[in-house]
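Archive entry: two folds, one per protein. Generate the first.
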Amino acid sequence: MTMTASAETRAAPTDADIRPVSGVAQAAETPVVWLDGVFRHFGETAALDGISLSVRKGEVLGIIGRSGAGKSTLIRCLNGLERPDRGTIEIEGRDITGLSEAELQPLRRRIGMIFQHFNLLSAKTVAENVMLPLKIEGMPRAQRRVRAAELLDLVGLSSKADAYPSALSGGQKQRVGIARALAARPALLLSDEATSALDPETTASILSLLKDINTRLGLTILLITHEMEVVRGVADRVAVIDAGKIVEDGPVWSVFSDPKAATTKSLLGAIRPGLPPAIAADLAARGEQVLSVDLVGPEASTLLPALSIALGAPVRLVHGGIDHIQGQSVGRFFITLAPGASLPQAIAFLTRHGAHVETTGHVADPV
């Protein structure tokens, strides 16, 4: 089951949260990516509307939003293909917004890029595709071949070195794309909808590979996607973008368990369990009050029995259960109370134990 739940309200990130501190601490904590008040307009349309964001070394950040939310513009600004109208973009502590094209070239070698449609050269072998960035930077051929062999081994395609892209499956092509993106040992890997053209099984294998690369190499990864399952499967943190603004940002387990923004709730709708309409209609016809209960932590598995004891009456679970996200037990339950049980007492008990509670048709007031 894919779902979520959390009891604490996340505060919006402040400048102090986003910007590294000065002095010695800054040298140790400077993020790989830092954006401050970034704007980019196309005519009257604000593609980016004051974006402030940071990505720490070794972190996997998922940036998710609907089509047209500003994701593609953001990634193009990060690799210097778009220039912001104003604001600051730093990569490894260096402001790139004022750099010339010639100055951007060595910086771009610090940024690997994997694409939705692979972008492999059909006339070159797998190994030649992987070696291409190294050829462009002038590495000797013998060294290029050694590096390509290492990377193809890393992505599980050593046996395909001499094959051409036309002989590969979609998942294999994307693995070649990942190997090529890693060729120059980048500090940052940008993934632009890299799994949206793949079937679910292949997507899972690519996400597993990315997580393995992140763990083994300590590589910072920024995933641009519209797929919540992609973020759930590999990211440490998720930022939700809507109309050029970051509307929510936090650890994946926290955002998935207790989404605040309407956009986040909508995007999570397909994977965050709701009460099935048929069950809701049946309970409404019988006049039963339904509580939705979201809770994160060890108590997720013990809260309902404890509630029953506290009320001195049965509690019926009609839908939901427990999931595990980033090592957190995340419970989402839809329950009804026995006739005569006190609804205010139930809400008070659940709230005291850190649960977020809603009743059918409205959000319960804190008790």
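Generate the second and append.
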Amino acid sequence: MNYYQEITLLPDVEISLGFIWQNVFQQVHIALVENKIGPNQSAIAVGFPDYKQGRFPLGSKLRLFAQKQEQLEKLAISNWLSRLEDYVHVKGIKPVPAEANFVSFTRKQVKSTERIEREMHQKAQRWSVKSGKPLTECLKDLEKTKPTGHSELPFIFLHSQETKRRSPNESSKFPLFISSVTVDGKQGVKQNGSFDCYGLSSKVNREDNLGCVPQF
């Protein structure tokens, strides 16, 4: 990634930083979808320079990265954020500094408590039918290995556009959990990997496939 554009979020006494993050990142996501280069694939990546370094877990800055300056120019993120102009400051496009570490920001799937309970009950029912044990006994045994729906990772609440289209009466709100893996010092990571339409790394199975962005 050779060029970047920085967005600073500007909360005030009436509008919290978390609420601004929701609105800003929702617009960034929509912009990336509209400019995607393949199925859920974006040429633009995102970075969080203050990740876990401030009072708000994601800090107050968001960076957009691209291989070419014209890719950021085409995205024209200021247009997508125009209705939030009182709460964001968008800087011009700049070259990435020569000296920078590299970080991969990825989406972490964290199941909701409701989904965990539903899946545990379904699993207990299957086990009860197969083993002949009472359902209550199967549920009690499964409690020992019950996963947790809690995560300490930073997250942003977003609305799923797919859910809105598919089921307009259902809640489309979900937390997007974001994890960070430092990969500075590795050879060949600067241009490797791919990014989804959240601007996050879409390859997490092997370290050399991570989508990486400069961190400075």
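Annotation attached to the second fold: The mean pLDDT is 82. The first helix runs from residue 17 to 34.
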